[in-house]
Design a protein that fits this description.
114 residues; alpha+beta; HIT family, subunit A; 3 helices; 22% helix; binds adenosine monophosphate; binds zinc ion
């Protein structure tokens, strides 16, 4: 999508600190980190949110979670643990309308979040 910031990161129009990439998924550092490790994992295809997953695109979630598994081990947060979050819609606090999963780690996290 032409005016989507994460599509622009995927196609290289906007720079990012890339952590991981494969043919379906890109992961990069969050520009405003909320924890020592704060990575965003996005499908390269524009999907607005969890609510826009459907029969034809839903398998990208498997690719995303495969990537999360690799990234957690790569960044050495697998042993201490971490959190995966997909904020969805207004009440969920979603500010970018391109499906993304936050990986938060490197410190003990509070629950429930604010
Ligand atoms: P959410 O609020 O769940 O939609 O998450 C969007 C996230 O994208 C926020 O944590 C922002 O800090 C992050 N973000 C926005 N613009 C960029 C960017 N250009 N590069 C990296 N992260 C970004
Ligand atoms: Zn997009």
């Amino acid at each position: 999508m032409s005016n989507c910031i994460f599509c622009k990161i995927v196609n290289g129009e906007i720079p990012c600190n890339k952590i991981y990439e494969d043919d379906k998924v890109l992961a990069f550092e969050d520009i405003n980190p909320g924890a020592p490790v704060h990575i965003l994992v996005v499908p390269k295809q524009h999907i607005q949110s969890v609510l826009d997953l459907n029969e034809s695109n839903k398998y990208v979630t498997v690719d995303i979670f495969d990537a999360i598994n690799k990234i957690a081990k790569m960044l050495d947060i697998d042993k201490d643990g971490f959190r995966v979050v997909a904020n969805t819609g207004a009440n969920g606090g979603q500010t970018v309308a391109h499906l993304h999963y936050h990986i938060l780690g490197g410190r003990s996290l509070q629950w429930p979040p604010g």
